[in-house]
Amino acid sequence: MLDVRDLEVTFTSGADEVRAVRGVSLTVQKGESYGIVGESGSGKSTVLRAICGLAPTSAGHILLDGKELATPRRPDFYRRVQMVFQDPYASLHPRHTVDAVLSEPLAIHRFDRRDERIAEALSAVGLGQGFRFRYPHQLSGGQRQRVAVARALILEPQILLLDEPTSALDASIQAEVLNLLDRLRAERGLTYVMVSHDLAVISHMCERLMVMEHGLAVEELTRDDLRQRRAGTPYTQRLLKASAGYTREAT
Ligand SMILES: Nc1ncnc2c1ncn2[C@@H]1O[C@H](COP(=O)(O)OP(=O)(O)OP(=O)(O)O)[C@@H](O)[C@H]1O
Q1: Is 141 a pocket residue for ligand 1 (Cβ < 6 Å)?
Q2: Could you give the CA distance from residue 157 to residue 96 in angstroms, rounded to a whole number?
Q3: SS3 192
Q4: Are 222 and 35 a contacting pair, CB within 8 Å?
Q5: What are its GO biological-process terms (predicted)?
Q6: Measured in angstroms, how far is the CA atom of residue 167 from the centroid of ligand 1?
Q7: What distance in Å separates the CA atoms of residue 115 and residue 133, rounded to the nearest whole number?
Q8: What's the topology of domain 2-243?
Q9: Residue 181 or residue 239, greater confidence
């Protein structure tokens, strides 16, 4: 469904150049949950941003259903592909109510039945209708991230790009939001590409994953490889060690 080939992203500011992504390729099947893991600065978020057309791609190809994506992305791309960011504090406008946050994409894409869709989106993420006219500061971190997920889902996309969607949350709330994302994917047949620095989170959420280091894809593993601790590189072994001890609680 999604095909990234030999992607290169270079940021330049003045004389400085940062080669954030250096020849990364990945293929994600429809309905799959694909993870990208690596230390801070390894280029994970930049890959997601490049898919959305938000990073300066200097080489490579990004295809959706076999068709190369136009730059800038066309509006219908955002009906099919939505992104959820790490920090719900930053991604929600402080002076917009939940209703305004959810109405905006519906208005931009001229969706009908807006009231109904907002009610449905809130209940899909486990928030009652009482949350509809609240402002972000009247929500907990977990509730805010649920609103961000509702906003991403309200256009009924097929693919969610999830950039550290739970790393700003407490461990117990993190587990709740991960379980919610898992359930939504199963119910709606969604395809996920999820970025995290935490291999434990990725191994719970994703069937396959790519490990990134310094802008390079160092290896691709399956969930089984991870569970058997079959990491091919010392770097991945180190990430595995760093994430040991994390357990996901059931809801
Ligand atoms: N807009 C930008 N301008 C200049 N450099 C950038 C920009 N965005 C990212 N970079 C650089 O690109 C590299 C990769 O950053 P990226 O955010 O993709 O890493 P990451 O693996 O997602 O890390 P983190 O988990 O900390 O977000 C870093 O060196 C970063 O400083």
Answers
A1: no
A2: 23
A3: strand
A4: no
A5: transmembrane transport
A6: 16
A7: 13
A8: Rossmann fold (3.40.50)
A9: 181
Q: Residue 41: which region, alpha, beta or left (left: phi > 0; alpha: psi -120 to 50)?
A: left
C-alpha closest to that of 181 among 207, 154, 164, 205:
205
Strands 191-196 and 33-38: parallel
- 194 phi and psi, to 5 degrees? -120, 130
- Write the pLDDT tens digit of every residue in 175-207: 999 999 999 999 999 999 999 988 889 989 999
- Alpha carbon of 70 to those of 49, 53, 123, 221, 226: distances in Å? 14, 9, 34, 30, 35
The residue whose two tokens read 């719900």 is 88
Going by the DSSP 8-state scheme, the letter that residue 230 receives in this structure is -
Q: What is the CA radius of gyration of the chain?
A: 18
φ, ψ of residue 82 to 5 degrees: the values are -125, 155
- pTM (2 decimals)? 0.92
Under 8 Å between Cβ of 94 and 135: yes
What is the DSSP annotation of 83-147?
A: EE-S-HHHHS-TTS-HHHHHHHHHHHTT-S-HHHHHHHHHHHTT--GGGTT--GGGS-HHHHHHH
Euclidean distance between the first and final Cα of the chain, in Å? 31
CA distance linking residue 235 with residue 173, whole number of Å: 29
- Please name the residue whose Cα sits nearest to atom 16 of ligand 1: 43
Both tokens of 218, joined, read 């160092």
From the CB of 44, is ligand 1 less than 6 Å away?
yes
ipTM beyond cut 0.85:
yes
Distance of CA 228 to the CA centre of its chain: 26
